[in-house]
Amino acid sequence: MTHAPRGNTPGPIIDHIDAYLDGTLSSADRAAFEERLARDPALRAELDLARGIEASLKRTHVPADITAPTLPRSASSSVTKPPASKLSGLRLYWPVIAAAALLFLAITAYQIYTRIDWKFHRYNAAEYYTMAARDSFKPDWVCRNDREFKEATGYSTGQQMLVKQDLPAKIDLVGWVYSQKFEGTPLRSSTVVLYAKVDDVPVVVLVDSLENDRKVRPGEDPDLHIFRRQLGASVLYEITPRPAPGVIDAFYLPPSE
User: Fold this and answer.
1) Is residue 186 part of a domain?
2) 227 and 237 Cβ atoms separated by less than 8 Å
3) How far is Cα 256 from Cα 2, in angstroms, rounded to an integer?
4) What CA–CA distance (Å, rounded) separates 42 from 174?
5) In terms of Cα–Cα distance, which of 16, 2, 1 is closest to 154?
6) Do the beta carbons of residue 8 and residue 189 sit within 8 Å?
7) For residue 51, is it within any domain?
8) Shared-domain flag, residues 132 and 248
9) Residue 45 domain flag
10) Domain contains 129
11) Cys staple from 177: which of 25, 56, 193, 228, with CB 3.0 to 4.6 Å?
């Protein structure tokens, strides 16, 4: 059963919302989902929207087996009335049908709008780097080990990833940032942001599923560089003052356990 619109939400997260509302998640997955809900306002908003849509559909649903009541025929009346037209019965449900149609049109318009909106907006690399620097590259949460890092990337993109550490450049994974920190920009709620340092130089990495890929433009700062990498079903953008990427090339797909 589909509960939520898919205009601006990635497939893996939508599937979790559907399964959560349907009660089909395992105990472990449900606990992980509720933990994510507790710290992710955007996910809670998507869940509330899904619940509202489901409730509206239930209110406007007309059971197919409703039949008109049979009224007792007056014994004193000898006049036989012609049978009522089937169309006249449908008039009783026109307000309900109209409400359902309006709801469907509203959902469709919302999906079209969000798809057009993100297709015609490109990420501004300089804007994101400036906002991160203004916040001193302070993360919202930090992965304590490889397992947590794989879970973080897997939940946001549907594909678990890790970062190699045995490279010539020194890579320090500072931590992850919610997209809400970049409010007012076209950054999608499905995108997760990784703060890192390469040889002590701060860099910003945007991580998302490939189906949500959006081009990144340099912005106004000529000292910033943008590098893109596709890794399986994921796309990564590195925004850095360095002349070469230092983090995205270190990402890799770990073997299945």
Assistant:
1) yes
2) yes
3) 29
4) 22
5) 16
6) yes
7) yes
8) yes
9) yes
10) yes
11) 193
| Segment 205-232, tens digit of pLDDT | 999 988 888 777 777 788 899 999 999 9
Mapping DSSP to helix (H, G, I), strand (E, B) and coil, where does residue 254 land?
coil
Domain containing residue 113: 11-63+84-119
**Of the residues 72, 93, 119, which one is the last residue of a structural domain?**
119
Query: How many folded domains does the chain comprise?
Result: 2
Q: Does position 21 have pLDDT exceeding 70, yes or no?
A: yes
Task: Determine the Cα–Cα distance for residues 104 and 100; give it in Å rounded to an integer.
Answer: 6
Give tens-digit pLDDT for 115-152.
444 443 456 778 889 889 988 999 999 999 999 999 98
Six-digit token string for 98: 């109209």
The H-assigned helical ranges of 40-138 are 41-60, 86-90, 94-119, 125-134
First to last CA, the chain: 30
Is the domain of 94 the same as that of 199? no
Three-class secondary structure of residue 28 per DSSP: helix
Q: Quick check: 25 pLDDT over 80?
A: yes
Whether residues 156 and 224 share a domain: the answer is yes
